[in-house]
Amino acid sequence: MRVARKSATEATLEPLQLGQRVRAIRLSQNLTLEEASKRTGLARSTLSKIENEQISPTFSAVNKLVHGLGIDIPQLFARPRTGASAGGRRDITRKGEGKPHPTPTYEHELLATQLTQKKMVPFRTRVHTRTFDEFSDWIRHEGEEFLFVLSGSLLFYTEFYEPVTLNEGDSAYYDCTMGHALVSTSEQDAEVLWVTA
Predict the structure, then answer these.
(1) What angle do CA 182, 139, 191 make, to 5 degrees?
(2) In terms of DSSP bridges, do strands 2-5 and 11-14 run parallel, antiparallel, or are they unpaired?
(3) Can you give the pTM of this predicted structure?
(4) CA dist., res. 57 & res. 42, Å (int)
(5) CB 19 within 8 A of CB 70
(6) So what's the pLDDT on residue 157?
(7) How is the chain split into domains, by residue range?
């Protein structure tokens, strides 16, 4: 189910028509039912019944559709916005030209600072801290965060888990309302890319 806005003051619920989404995705890839059947491992008759809303796919069938059609689950369940056009938002940050934002423990470089009302906030950080005792409290804030280690190694502390070592190329995704903190363990300060949503 999704809310379809008809006007600023009127909203109605529209049923999700999964069969139509499957057909639209299949046709957008120029696949026949037979070709889609081979890709997904689902019988041609099963695909036809799903597309004609005669049966609801099982969780296993949904997984086969997603993998076979090369899509993400949200693409299967989210209807494309009608009449939507590309927003054309873009911001380029050249190396070393981000907005500096130093703190006692981290040296942040804020990226894509020309865009306002972003849905995510990217920033590069050099981690100065060497022990957890340098933090006065856990770091907590709204949203979810993705962390990617660019160089060095560090200990990733989280409120409800044991500390874990992260090395160059490792990443973590977590809830930011849970206390978290980073401590460099390499000879040079570790550098990370953070994206907060």
Answers:
(1) 30
(2) antiparallel
(3) 0.59
(4) 10
(5) no
(6) 97
(7) 17-77, 99-196
